[in-house]
UniProtKB/TrEMBL annotation:
It comes from Agromyces ramosus. Residues 567-601 form a coiled coil. SUPFAM superfamilies: P-loop containing nucleoside triphosphate hydrolases (SSF52540). The keyword Nucleotide-binding applies. It comes from the Bacteria. Residues 519-553 are annotated as: Disordered. This is ATPase subunit of ABC transporter with duplicated ATPase domains. InterPro entries: AAA+_ATPase, ABC_tran_Xtn, ABC_transporter-like_ATP-bd, ABC_transporter-like_CS, ABCF_ATPase, P-loop_NTPase.
Length: 636
């Protein structure tokens, strides 16, 4: 494969630290590279160096003659005085760009809800970002650098972008280097991974999953080497500490070697580990939404147009203790309204909301509003105001931590503990926000786009924390990896209804495509998306998705038949099947262990155990069939 660009012995320093030291790497045709690392370690800076946005202090970046490089920077902004059309296709006539399949695909995938002839200044920040991404992708580039391209895209938009980038070039042509915290996107698009840390760039083969496996093996080997080094260090220190008279008689190089071991003692990377934070008691009743509808008035409705909009329609949802649910839907579908019903911030137009007496709800919002009152206080002081000590863990393993120790376990350095809250980075504020919420001991936690400003390592740490958190968890996020990782069940808001998704995000995307393909589906999907005032959707652009699969006659009949007591009975039966399946899976695992331990020469005993295993597996198959039948009836 032909070489496109390369970096040789790059060195870059900022006033307070060294960002890169002696970094050498290259990009060849066919490369699809994902860049990961902690926030602040230099991922965006690396892209700027390679794209010639900034120059290194030492070393050089070489590029093949005539190479075309396109870049989307986090700070890139579109001229607010331009229209969307001018920003994306310039002065090219419509009949010219409309004949280009790539341009049509980009506009349909990113700008279906953006008024085509309105000024960029009137758009939201998310819409401006998508306009900038579309303006880049309609161009013809040999190398594309993307810095956080999935920001402001929903699940469908991210899936579209992955398809576009995978099909943009032939297998051995073009090159992509992308910085993103979206781990599903990394796995879907990238064939190589660069980890930026401690002033170096470490390459790994494969996407995110392969990178994690290789990193775990690397860390395991490093831990083994470190254990040997620690033993050597202890021996050397003990040898040195046998007294000053003895030390003067020892060879100086041994003293220097021991001191070097001490000086090079590395800090623990990513020391984020919270085993358990206490939660308030949660009874059997959490929150029930019973036949709830929410209707909003339409401001400035055109003459003859509807004056109200139904966001949620006759919705019934019973949230169970310990339930871990992900909510999917396009922007404007009603996800925030649904969460508002749960918290009490939104009142239903019809129907009622029933809350348990012991329910204590907390929300990790997108706005970081919880930190406003502490903006001028030091981080350590904010935590100290809550408590003087914190108990983490259970039983004999429980330990008490000071506020400073707890913050350090969340990735804050000693220097950052004295930093005013207003001076923290976005990711640091996000971590502090989550910590304050968990310390209030809620038993229902709502995460509204929790992945904003967090790097992949911190996301993994928060997921590990949520794994051990015993309360009820509701997650709204466009981060597909997070939704599938921390929730056991997913729902979608489609046409104002809440639909169960037994097959998760894949099923949601299929439903959206089905409605788009149905007669009138594209128009319905476009109508379901929020349109800013001042213009219409782009001409000649196909809509990249649809609101959801509309029910046919059979589905509507099933939904109508399964209401009230029948629906509740079906939900209870499905929950019962879930519990029985879990017990059977445990019994099957135990049976496999018995087979492994049993005398392999005892054919009679092995046959008996095998028959028992077959019976258990047959029971699982029957229950799974019944579970699917009940689920289909509930879905309608």
């Amino acid at each position: 494969m032909a070489h496109l660009l390369g970096a040789e012995r790059l060195h870059l320093e900022f006033p307070t630290r060294t960002v890169f030291d002696e970094v050498t790497l290259g990009v060849d045709e066919g490369d699809r590279i994902g860049v990961v690392g902690r926030n602040g370690d230099g991922k965006s800076t690396l892209l700027k160096l390679l794209a010639a946005r900034i120059e290194p202090d030492a070393g050089r970046v070489t590029r093949r003659r005539g190479i075309r490089i396109g870049m989307l920077d986090q700070a890139d902004v579109v001229d607010p005085g331009m229209t969307v059309a001018e920003a994306v296709v310039g002065g090219i006539d419509e009949h010219v760009w409309a004949g280009d399949a790539r341009v049509r695909d980009v506009i349909g995938g990113l700008l279906a809800d953006v008024p085509w002839h309105t000024q960029v200044a009137s758009l939201s920040g998310g819409q401006r970002r998508r306009v900038g991404l579309a303006a880049l992708l309609v161009g013809d580039w040999d190398v594309v650098f993307l810095d956080e391209p999935t920001n402001h895209l929903d699940v469908e938009g991210i899936a579209w972008l992955a398809r576009h980038l995978k099909g943009r070039w032939a297998t051995d042509a073009g090159a992509l280097v992308v910085v993103t915290h979206d781990r599903w996107f990394l796995d879907e698009v990238c064939t190589d991974t660069w980890e930026v840390h401690d002033g170096v760039v470490e390459p790994f083969e494969g996407g995110y999953a392969a990178y994690v496996l290789q990193r775990v093996e690397r860390d395991r080997m490093a831990a083994a080497s470190e254990a040997k080094r620690q033993n050597l260090m202890r021996k050397e220190l003990a040898w040195l500490r046998r007294g000053a008279p003895a030390r003067t008689s020892k060879p100086k190089f041994r003293i220097d070697a021991a001191n070097q071991l001490i000086e090079n003692e590395p800090p623990v990377r990513n020391p984020v580990e919270l085993n358990r934070l206490a939660v308030s008691r949660l009874g059997k009743d959490v929150v029930d939404l019973l036949d709830v509808s929410v209707v909003y008035p339409v401001a400035d409705a055109a003459p003859g147009a509807p004056t109200t909009k139904t966001v949620l329609h006759e919705l019934e949802w019973r949230i169970a203790p310990g339930e871990r649910t992900g909510i999917l839907g396009v922007n404007g579908a009603g996800k925030s309204t649904l969460l508002g019903l749960v918290t009490g911030a939104v009142q239903p137009t019809t129907g009622r909301v029933k809350r348990g007496k012991t329910v204590k709800i907390a929300t990790l919002s997108q706005e970081l509003a919880e930190l406003a009152e502490w903006a001028d206080q030091r981080v350590s002081a904010v935590i100290a105001e809550q408590r003087t000590a914190y108990r983490v863990g259970e039983g004999s393993k429980a330990v008490e931590l000071t506020p400073g120790q707890l913050l350090e376990r969340l990735g804050f350095t000693n220097a950052q503990l004295s930093t005013p809250v207003r001076n923290l980075s976005g990711g640091q504020k996000r971590r502090l926000q989550l910590l304050l919420i968990l310390l209030s001991e809620p038993n229902v936690l709502i995460l509204d786009e929790p992945t904003n400003d967090l790097d992949t390592d911190m996301l993994a740490a928060i997921e590990d924390l949520l794994d051990s958190w015993p309360g009820t968890l509701l997650v709204v996020s466009h981060d597909r990896y997070l939704v599938e990782r921390v929730t056991d069940r997913q729902f979608a808001i489609l046409d104002g209804h809440l639909r169960d998704l037994p097959r998760g995000v894949d099923q949601y995307l299929e439903l959206r495509r089905q409605q788009a393909d149905a007669p009138g589906g594209a128009a319905a999907a476009e109508a379901s998306r929020p349109i800013a005032a001042g213009g219409s959707a782009p001409p000649a652009a196909t809509v990249g998705g649809a609101e959801g699969a509309s029910m046919g006659g059979e589905g509507a009949a099933a939904s109508a038949a399964l209401t009230g007591a029948d629906r509740r009975a079906a939900e209870k039966e499905r929950s019962s099947i879930d519990r029985r399946l879990e017990k059977l899976q445990a019994q099957i695992a135990e049976q496999h262990e018995k087979l492994a331990r049993h005398d392999q020469g005892d054919y009679v005993g092995l046959g008996r155990l095998g028959d028992e295993l077959g019976g258990l597996e047959a029971s699982v198959a029957e229950l799974e069939t019944r579970w699917l039948e009940v689920s289909e009836a509930l879905e309608g």
